[in-house]
Structures are given as structure tokens and as C-alpha cells.
Design the sequence.
């Protein structure tokens, strides 16, 4: 089943009055359980495509379907609800809330879903133990390393059991060992919980680990391949 | 709870900025409390001085006397009045008075006065005239004694022990006069009152005015000011239409209107303080929002709805205001508590204050409802001030906000 399907996506945005054609006729799909990497050099449109898939941006033309529904027909409130209930996000800069502890950061999206405080804490702590970061529960982001923060960010993204996790350059600020460990973690979640992961990255380590690769260049899909092909 | 916790921690991200705005709120609330307390204290003093010096809670006259204070309008038989009053459990004390406008003359000068004939014991129960005597003594009840104010004594060039002559129109249209010896000099809180009122024994006044047993009024003090209405209603049922029963509200309408206006004017003062503070709070909240544009973008990206975002920002403003209001309210109570016992000495303005019937030392009054109102006003202002910053946060597009550096 297609979690994501895009049809002839075009994205043009203005940069100081100059139109920039970020995406040209991008059509692709992502199936349930895939571990997909959208790769390409800087400026190839990876982040733009990821933002459109994640309903954070609207295409100039073309359509995005999430679980068969046209995302373009939804209001901003409905899109926010879609992201909250169905998606998780991992950002390059971790983006944890600095005044909340690791446990509270993981609880946060569950709080938005109006899950009870008791259940939130139980689920968040259980996940932290599963991910091997339970000792970080009471720590604030400024007391954690980059790798630890990103692991907490992954926990935040998956704690609500989303259908899809979008990760934009998740290893960009990490050393290779830490980045590798993070990828191990996400692969584990993909295998054990069947969570679909879509990454945007130009990191060779990430590209190698992807079981499906979508290569972008100058806003167009240059190549699609599966691991081993 | 988590949103509250998040809002609380957010306001302390920039401790210095938050402390500055909290301090301004504290100063605002303390200022409101102090001004309100001082104003209320001043008016309360004026009111109590008026009641205590002369007006008391109720006065009963012959109908028409209050509009035309001539001896022909005296009460002919005060029996029904005193009987009705003595039978009312809400009445604490009463005093019969004879009042006539006349002239008081000394060896060197004369002045227009209001001659008040009293029973000294009864009058001491309902007014503070006996406590106001500064030199000499109060009336003993013996004939030909007179108590006048120090101010009037200076005008007349007279002093203790001197003889003065009081003259006024009698019931039969002639001029009655009597000689008195000054036994006491008083000073009340009101210079205007002092210049006008002189006190002589009731019987002396009745003889001088040739009114027999007639009296001008019966003044009444109730057991509690709340029972004045009930006493008035009872008297009006029991007395016939030849009497008029006037409460302090009927006798002091302008003072009461002044007091009401002062209450209304406090709202203007609150508004001014509020306006002064609101822009500081708006600025603080706007800075706080702009510093977190990227963070708000991330929160919106993960699915935070605008309603929750607005609630969080308004909560932050509410918490800032609460801290300031609580400290300011506490400070206002402490300051007013201290000043309500020690008073504030306005000696430099004593002459002016005496014109209004207030003493040189004003005792602020603590009004907990007023302090609570001031605090509530501040909280409302904080929430209003946060609306524009919240609106700016709501308008953020997640994609643009995430890119914001």
C-alpha cells in the first residue's frame, strides 16, 4: 500500500524576487514499511520534497496523497492534525524544546494528542528504555550530546506510533559513529514496528543504509533504485 | 499541567527581562493599592468627621426646618419623637438640640454663628464635641457657659473666661440675647464648621429664643450604620407628616456623591496605570515570541494547533502578571497595614485639608476587594497585552518559521 504518492510535483518559490524552480514534475511513491532515502547534492530539492510530503508546504502544481487522500484539499488545521496523528519528524538540528527534559520532550506530542499524563509517562519511559536512553529522562537538551539529543528526537517522532517518519538530514550534525548508531536505531524501529522512514540526506552513510534510493538532481528524479539493484 | 509547566519555564528563559516586567507590575499594583487606600482613608475621615462632629446618623425635625432653619419651624412637642426613638432597639443614643442663626459678639468683634443649644451629656454620646475641646473644658450643664472654636475665638479676639453675647431672633419676632462665659475652646477637623458653631446649654438657648420646650431637632446615633434605613422607615411609620426624618444620606448628599465619584475615578487611575504597563508587556511578549519563531515552527510542524499555541502564550503572560500581582498585592497590603496605624502626616497641607473636614494625618484604609480588583485588572491587562504577540505566532507558517535563524 502506498503511504505517500506524489504526482507531477512542481515547486517554485521566490528568492529576493527571483523565481527558483525547486522541483520539476516529481512523481514518486513510498510504500508502507519502506526505509527510503531521498538523496542528492545541495540544492537538488531534497528538503523541499520532504516538506511537501510532510504537508509542511504546498506545491505550486501537482498533488500529494497521504494514505490515498489528497493532502491539498485539507485546511491548515487538518494538516496539523494529520502531522500530529500520522507523522513524526526528525530534524537536522534536533529541535528539542530547551526548557523540557528528555522525557517531557518525548511526552510532548502525546500531550498534544490529549493522552493522559500517566499513560504519557509510561509510554515515554518504556520507549526510552527500549532505545537505551532511559538515563537521559531528567536531563535537559543543553546537558546532552548531539547524538543523545537526536536519539531523544527520534523517540519523540515515533512515540505516537506514526505511519510515517520524515527525517531531514538527521546525521548532518553528528560524527560518523554516532550517526551510524542513530541509523541502527531507526532501522530497528523500521523492522520491529514497521514504521515507514523517509530520509533526505547527502550523507553516504545514510544513502548506503537506505533500502530504497530516490536520487534528485536539479529538482528532478534522476534515478530510483532499491538496495541490491 | 504540562502546558502550564512549559509556560512557567518559558517565562524564565530570560530571567532579567521577566524580572524587569514583574517589577513594573509590582510597582503598578502597589501604586494602585496605595492611592486607593489613601483616597478611601481621606474620604472615610471626612465622612466620619462629619457624622461625628455634628450630623450623626439621623435627624428629626419639624417638616420644613431643614430648608428654612428658623425658630418658627421648631418641633413643638418632641415627646412622640423621643418615645418612638426610645422604643427602637436599633437606636443607640439621641440628643435634642436647639439651633438658631445669630450673632456672637465679644468686646472687640462679632461674627455670624449657628447657636446650638445642647444637653451636654446627651450630645457627648452622639458627637465628638466633648473630645474636641483643646483648652478649658466642655459644658457642665450650668447656665451661661459657652464653648466656641479656637478659630472663632481668634476672630473675636476673645479667650477662656471672657464674656460674650449671643443674639438671635426669637419665636415672637423680637431679638433675644444672652451673656455667656467662655469655658472651653474646641477645634474640629473642619475649619468651616469651627467658624460657625457655638455650643450653649439647651435651656439657656430655649430661654433666649423664647421657645419654651420647643426644640429644633433630635439627632440620633444608630447601633450600626446599616440599621439607619430601618430606623428611618420605622420613624416615618410612627410619626405623622408634620415631622421630617432625614438620614445622613439625605443630609450629606454632596459628600456621598464625592465618595462615589472617587470610586469611579479610581477606575480612571487603574486605566492610566494599565495603559502605562501594557506597552511594556506587549514588548516583552513580542520579544519572547520573536526569539522562538524557529521553535514555534517546529512545534507547528509536529502538529501543535494554533489554539494550544495561543493558550501557551497567554498563559505565559498570565503567569508573569500573577507573580507581579501577588507580590504587588502583598506589598500593597503591608504598606497600607503599616500606614493605616501610623498614618501619613500632611501637616504642610493641614489648612487645605481642614477645609474639607479632614485632619492633617490621613490613615489609609485597606480594602481587600479593591486590592483584588487592582490585581485582576493587571491580570486582564497582561492577557490583553499578549494577544497581539499570540496573533503573530499564529500567523507563522511552519515551513518559514523552521527556516528562521
Sequence:
Amino acid at each position: 500500500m502506498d503511504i505517500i504518492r506524489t504526482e507531477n510535483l512542481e515547486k517554485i518559490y521566490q528568492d529576493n524576487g527571483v523565481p527558483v524552480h525547486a522541483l520539476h514534475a516529481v512523481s514518486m511513491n513510498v510504500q508502507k514499511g519502506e526505509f527510503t532515502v531521498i538523496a542528492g547534492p545541495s540544492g537538488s530539492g531534497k528538503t523541499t520534497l520532504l516538506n511537501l510530503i510532510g504537508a509542511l508546504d504546498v506545491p505550486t502544481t501537482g498533488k500529494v496523497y497521504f494514505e490515498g487522500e489528497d493532502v491539498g484539499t485539507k485546511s491548515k488545521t487538518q494538516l496539523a492534525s494529520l502531522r500530529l496523528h500520522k507523522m513524526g519528524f526528525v530534524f537536522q538540528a534536533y529541535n528539542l524544546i530547551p526548557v523540557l527534559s528528555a522525557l517531557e520532550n518525548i511526552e510532548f506530542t502525546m500531550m498534544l494528542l490529549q493522552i493522559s499524563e500517566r499513560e504519557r509517562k509510561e509510554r515515554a519511559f518504556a520507549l526510552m528504555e527500549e532505545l537505551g536512553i532511559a538515563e537521559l529522562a531528567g536531563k535537559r537538551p543543553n546537558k546532552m550530546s548531539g547524538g543523545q539529543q537526536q536519539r531523544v528526537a527520534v523517540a519523540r517522532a515515533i512515540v505516537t506510533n506514526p505511519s510515517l517518519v520524515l527525517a531531514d538530514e538527521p546525521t548532518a550534525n553528528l560524527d560518523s559513529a554516532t550517526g551510524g548508531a542513530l541509523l541502527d536505531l531507526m532501522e530497528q524501529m523500521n523492522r520491529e514496528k514497521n514504521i515507514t522512514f523517509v530520509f533526505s540526506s547527502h550523507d553516504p552513510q545514510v544513502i548506503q543504509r537506505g533500502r530504497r534510493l530516490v536520487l534528485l538532481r536539479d529538482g528532478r528524479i534522476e534515478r530510483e533504485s532499491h538496495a541490491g539493484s | 499541567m504540562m502546558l502550564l509547566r512549559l509556560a512557567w519555564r518559558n517565562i524564565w528563559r530570560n530571567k532579567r527581562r521577566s524580572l524587569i516586567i514583574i517589577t513594573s507590575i509590582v510597582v503598578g499594583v502597589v501604586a494602585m493599592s496605595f492611592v486607593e487606600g489613601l483616597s478611601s482613608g481621606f474620604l472615610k475621615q471626612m465622612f466620619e468627621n462629619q457624622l461625628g462632629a455634628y450630623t450623626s446618623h439621623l435627624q428629626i425635625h419639624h417638616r420644613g426646618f431643614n430648608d428654612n432653619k428658623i425658630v418658627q419651624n421648631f418641633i413643638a412637642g418632641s415627646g412622640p419623637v423621643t418615645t418612638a426613638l426610645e422604643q427602637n432597639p436599633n437606636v443607640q443614643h439621641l440628643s435634642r438640640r436647639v439651633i438658631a442663626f445669630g450673632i456672637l459678639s465679644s468686646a472687640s468683634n462679632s461674627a455670624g454663628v449657628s447657636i446650638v443649644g445642647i444637653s451636654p451629656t446627651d450630645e457627648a454620646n452622639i458627637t465628638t464635641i466633648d473630645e474636641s475641646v483643646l483648652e478649658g473644658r466642655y459644658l457642665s450643664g450650668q447656665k451661661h457657659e459657652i464653648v466656641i472654636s479656637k478659630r472663632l475665638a481668634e476672630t473675636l479676639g476673645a479667650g477662656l473666661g471672657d464674656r460674650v453675647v449671643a443674639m438671635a431672633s426669637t419665636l415672637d419676632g423680637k431679638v433675644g440675647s444672652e451673656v455667656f462665659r467662655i469655658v472651653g475652646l474646641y477645634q474640629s477637623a473642619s475649619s468651616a464648621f469651627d467658624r460657625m458653631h457655638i455650643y450653649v446649654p439647651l435651656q439657656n438657648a430655649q430661654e433666649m429664643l423664647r421657645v419654651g420646650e420647643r426644640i429644633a431637632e433630635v439627632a440620633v446615633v444608630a447601633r450600626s450604620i446599616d440599621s439607619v434605613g430601618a430606623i428611618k422607615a420605622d420613624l416615618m411609620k410612627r410619626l405623622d407628616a408634620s415631622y421630617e426624618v432625614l438620614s445622613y444620606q439625605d443630609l450629606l448628599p454632596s459628600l456621598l456623591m464625592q465618595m462615589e465619584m472617587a470610586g469611579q475615578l479610581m477606575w480612571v487611575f487603574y486605566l492610566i496605570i494599565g495603559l502605562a504597563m501594557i506597552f511594556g508587556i506587549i514588548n516583552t511578549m513580542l520579544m519572547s515570541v520573536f526569539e522562538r519563531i524557529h521553535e514555534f515552527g517546529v512545534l507547528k510542524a509536529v502538529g501543535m494547533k494554533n489554539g494550544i499555541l495561543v493558550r501557551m502564550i497567554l498563559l505565559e503572560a498570565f503567569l508573569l502578571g500573577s507573580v507581579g500581582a501577588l507580590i504587588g498585592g502583598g506589598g500593597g497590603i503591608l504598606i497600607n497595614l503599616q500606614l493605616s496605624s501610623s498614618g501619613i502626616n500632611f501637616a504642610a497641607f493641614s489648612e487645605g485639608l481642614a477645609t474639607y473636614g479632614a485632619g492633617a494625618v490621613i490613615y489609609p484604609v485597606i480594602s481587600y476587594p479593591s486590592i483584588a480588583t487592582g490585581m485582576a485588572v493587571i491580570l486582564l491587562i497582561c492577557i490583553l497585552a499578549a494577544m497581539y504577540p499570540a496573533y503573530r505566532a499564529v500567523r507563522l507558517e511552519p515551513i518559514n518559521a523552521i527556516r528562521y535563524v
